[in-house]
Amino acid sequence: MSGRGDIEVDHLRREFGKFVAVDDVTFQVPRGEIFGWLGANGAGKSTTIRMLIGVLEPTGGDALVDGISVRKDPFGVKRRIGYMSQRFSLYPDLTVRQNMAFFGGAYGLSGKKLNDRIETVARDVDLTELLTAKTADLPGGTRQRVALGTSLLQEPGIVFLDEPTAGVDPVSRRMFWDLIRRISGQGTTVFVTTHHLDEAEECRRVGLMVDGKLVALDTPAALARDHVPGTIWRARAVGIQAAVPLLVGRPGVLDVQPFGSELHVRVDGLPKEMLDDWLRPRFPDLTLEQGRATLEDVFLAVVGHQEET
Ligand SMILES: Nc1ncnc2c1ncn2[C@@H]1O[C@H](COP(=O)(O)OP(=O)(O)OP(=O)(O)O)[C@@H](O)[C@H]1O
Ligand SMILES: [Mg+2]
Predict the structure, then answer these.
(1) For residues 171 and 158, what is the distance between their CA atoms, to the nearest angstrom?
(2) Quick one: 47 and 141 in the same domain?
C-alpha cells in the first residue's frame, strides 16, 4: 500500500441551490483508523462521502484524501480510494469472479495482475469458495462482502463504505465487521457510515452529523462521557425488567432502559447503595456494575439537544 492513507477535511461545504447539505465540516482521519460517520437520514453523510471520493464537487472548502485535493484533482483521488456505495449494484447475472473482473477492469487492472488481485481479495474477504457462484444466488450479507472485496481490488489506502450493512442480518453484520477490523489492521483507513449504532461502537472514533453540520467527534467512550450526564449502573437479576416502574421518577434517577437481559439505570449523584436498597428486596440475586452510555444514548442526547436549539 502506497500513499499517506489519511484524510484532512477543511471547511468542506456543499449546497444544492439554497439548501446546505454539508455545512462547513472540518476534521482529520489518520491512516489505518476505523472512522464512523453517523447521522439521521438526510444528515449529509453520503454527500460528504461523494465529495471525499471525488465524484461531487464541493461548493466550499476542500479535502486532502491520501494527500490529494478533491478540488484540484478529483480523478487522482478516485484512482487511489475504494468505494462501496449505499446503492451499490453488482451485476446479479454475473459470477462473483466476473463481477470482480468487471470492476477491477474499470479500475484499470488487467491480465495476471487482475487475476492475482481477485485471488488475494477473495481470500481476504473469505469468498474463495464462492468465486464461481452466481451473484444473484448469494444472500445479502455475502453480496455485501463481494462489494467490499471489489472496492479493495486496486489496493486502496482508504476505503469509503456507505452503509455497507444496511439490510444485512446480525450474524453477517458481525462477520462484515470482522473484515473491517482485519482491513484496518493491515493499515487501510476505513471511513464507514451506518445506522446501526451498536456496530458503530467498533469504530475508533465517530463523527456525528446533524443537518449538514458536524456536531460531535471523538471516541465512543469520550462521547458518552461528554454528552450523556450521570453514571450508568448495569443491573442484573432474574426478572430485572420488572424493576422499571420501581425506578422511573425516583429522585436522582435520570433514565431507565432495558438492555438485553439487563437494565441500564442512569443516575445523577445517587449512591450505588441506595439503588441496591431499593432493588434487593424484590431481586435478591441483584448485581450492580458500572457501565457507560452507548452511542445510542449519545445520539439521543446530541440530536435531541440540537433539535431544541
Ligand atoms: N443531488 C442533490 N440535489 C439536491 N439535494 C440533494 C442532492 N443530494 C442530496 N441532497 C439532499 O441533501 C441532504 C443530505 O443527503 P445525503 O444523501 O447526504 O444524506 P445521508 O445522511 O446520506 O442520508 P441517508 O442516511 O438517508 O443515506 C438530503 O436532504 C438530500 O435530499
Ligand atoms: Mg446516505
Answers:
(1) 25
(2) yes
